[in-house]
């Protein structure tokens, strides 16, 4: 099985892990609304030590159902793409993506409570896009173009264009995704190389090209090749024997 077949392979985890992750966010939101409304304050508070805890908790906390809904769909779609095309490094991208994007938010963010999984969404958008470009693999490049088509407009929200939106978290996510695409640049599926693309390829050894003569005519059935030396060895003894036999008879 080739490297591409091993990497681009469907398994139950491709759907199950993203589904479990999104479902856990919805369960936390249900518990927040029903029993623990105070956990809404467990976001990232920039430049405050107590705000560092929000790096790990903020992706699971949302302001309202609309906020949660807008993050859930892209998070699920992008996570499925991540686990299918980059299975070996998917968990690293998710975990360190949460940490690094949250750390960026803590460093550059305004003094406010930054919550939501949108930072992670931006990590995945950025990572999948740049990773596909770096890979130069036709499937991954196509995936990058799809990401641009679906979520290219998100780039505007990485800047302070809308009040009440944590553009710092979005910007941190974009930067984090680019960083991971560079770090894991070698962990990519290489484009498949055909026989004639190999550096040691020799046309004379190609069994298919042997079916063509010097004029380019196709020969369906090739005659078995017999070396001249072997032919001479087979003929010469018979000739000597025949000559000697004739000499004796004469």
Would you kindly provide a written description of the structure presented here, covering whatever features stand out?
The protein is mostly helical. The chain has nine helices and no strands. The chain has one domain (3-183): Rhomboid-like fold. The chain is 57% helix and 0% strand. Residues 1-5 and 239-250 have low confidence and may be disordered.
Number of strands: 0
Q: Look at the structure and name the CATH superfamily.
A: Rhomboid-like
Roughly what is the average pLDDT, rounded to an integer?
80
Residue runs with pLDDT of under 50 for 5 or more positions: 1-5, 239-250
The total number of structural domains is 1
**Largest sheet report:** none
What pattern of helices and strands is seen along the backbone?
HHHHHHHHH
Taken from the alpha-carbon principal axes, the silhouette is elongated
Helical stretch count? 9
Based on the model shown, name its key terms.
mainly alpha, Rhomboid-like fold, disordered N terminus, disordered C terminus
How would you concisely characterize the structure shown here?
By secondary structure, the chain is mainly alpha-helical. The protein contains 9 helices and no strands. 57% of the residues lie in helices and 0% in strands.
Topology record:
Layout: H1 3-7, H2 12-34, H3 54-57, H4 65-85, H5 90-108, H6 118-135, H7 138-151, H8 167-183, H9 228-249
């Amino acid at each position: 099985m080739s490297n591409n077949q091993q990497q681009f392979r469907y398994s139950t985890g491709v759907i199950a892990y993203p589904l479990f992750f999104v479902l856990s966010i919805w369960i936390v939101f249900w518990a927040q609304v029903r029993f623990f409304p105070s956990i809404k304050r467990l976001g990232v508070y920039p430049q405050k030590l107590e705000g560092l805890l929000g790096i790990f908790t903020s992706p699971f906390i949302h302001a309202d159902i609309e906020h949660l809904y807008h993050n859930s769909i892209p998070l699920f779609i992008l996570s499925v793409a991540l686990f299918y095309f980059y299975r070996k490094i998917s968990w690293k991208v998710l975990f360190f993506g949460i940490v690094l994007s949250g750390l960026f938010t803590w460093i550059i963010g305004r003094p406010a409570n930054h919550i939501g999984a949108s930072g992670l969404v931006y990590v995945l958008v950025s990572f999948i896009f740049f990773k596909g470009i770096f890979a130069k693999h036709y499937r991954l490049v196509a995936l990058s173009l799809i990401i641009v088509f679906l979520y290219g407009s998100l780039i505007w929200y990485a800047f302070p264009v809308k009040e009440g939106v944590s553009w710092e978290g979005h910007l941190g996510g974009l930067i984090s995704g680019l960083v991971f695409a560079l770090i894991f640049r070698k962990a990519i599926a290489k484009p498949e190389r055909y026989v004639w693309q190999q550096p040691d390829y020799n046309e004379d050894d190609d069994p298919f090209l042997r079916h063509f003569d010097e004029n380019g005519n196709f020969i369906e059935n090739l005659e078995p090749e017999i070396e001249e030396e072997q032919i001479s060895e087979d003929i010469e003894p018979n000739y000597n024997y025949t000559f000697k036999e004739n000499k004796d008879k004469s």
